[in-house]
Amino acid sequence: MDTLEIKDEEVDVEKIMEKIRENIDTRKKEGIYTENEPEIMSETFSAVSPIKRDIPEGLEFINYCDISNESYTISSHRPLTGKFLIEGRKMVHGEVRRYVDPVFQKQKEFNFGVADVVKDLKTESQYLKTNVENLNTGLERLNDNSKSLKIDVKSLKTDTGYLKTELEHLKVDSPQNIKSEVNNFISAIDLDLNNKSWLNSVLENRFKKNLQNHKVQKPENNESEINYYAFEEQFRGSRDHIQQHQKVFLDYFKDCKNVLDIGCGRGEFLELARQKDIGAKGIDVDEDMVNFCKSKGFNVELKDAIEALQSMEDKSLDGIFISQVVEHLAPNYLIKMLHLCNKKLKYGFYLIVETVNPLSFFSFTNFYIDFTHIKPVHPETLKFLLSAVNFREIETKFISPVPDSMKLKKLPEFGDLKDREKVLFETFNQNINMLNNTLYGEQDYAVIGKK
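and the corresponding structure tokens:
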């Protein structure tokens, strides 16, 4: 076996490893290696193979694998020269280890590095496995949603087909149906107009007879020594209080430029109209009220309602507001005034008539505090009168509720009531509600009509 000379200034690891392999082959041929040593080496290489072993076992092997051969001993079978041979071999062995051991150490470090990388790969593999499982779950969910969407699409197609069929039927039937409906509607309008025209002629004849036989009654506040402004301030309430109730009517006069407030009083509505850029003017028969409104800068005249309306052009007003006036008027005067309101109002605009609610006992008992009141007007009566003079889309609004503190109190709810007691309890409270509606209903109401 040749001796390899190694110089310190130049180390060729490849040559050293090649020489070691040659020595191993030579020792095999000479029978120096035992029979099981090649198998041990084969098992070692097999153990580090990632194909034949599981990753955890491979990691454990790499971490604890020591490729150094500590079991190797230097010996000789020659009795005479063996001692010298052993010493010589020890010298060679020592020199070889100086160069081979660093290689083995680097191999160990490499093994540890490989182990760390494999650990990271194992962690990454587990992470990827989890992601794949999540993706599979998501795909299954998407698949279910896709099936559901297919069902919905199928249902929509069915509905679309049905709608197309219905549309075809409508195309065939609609013109005829529309024509029939229009004819029926026109016939109904003609009948309604004929009825109202007839009623209007009857009312006009009655107006003429009544005006000839009776002098129209008007409030005589302007001839009395009583200051009606002070009277309203005490009994009707402050201007702010009245305005809170009248705000609900402003939307009916939105963007209007020529609204007439009949019986404007202290000008509560005129002030609200000014705040909303609604053009409004007022008339009243009380000189104190008119002077007060003029002091506020409102456009107000001292005029009787019928005289003022008769002096205006037909269809010149785009709104009329009458608050707390009709209860002061005689029936004939009221009917004549409403007729003129319809005549002077533009088509599509509103008349609002607000007055005392006689359906409320609380309101009715206070009705005659004002001695200028003639009689209350029932809501249904006022609705009929507006309809008779050709107003349409008539509605009634009840306003000015009585405070709850003044109403009858209901029994509070008790727990664990027996069935019989519960029935009595509910019946009693229902009766209280009915009494409150009758005794303490809203104090005022308004009837609203559209021309």
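(Above: one complete record from the training split.) The first helix runs from residue 13 to 30.
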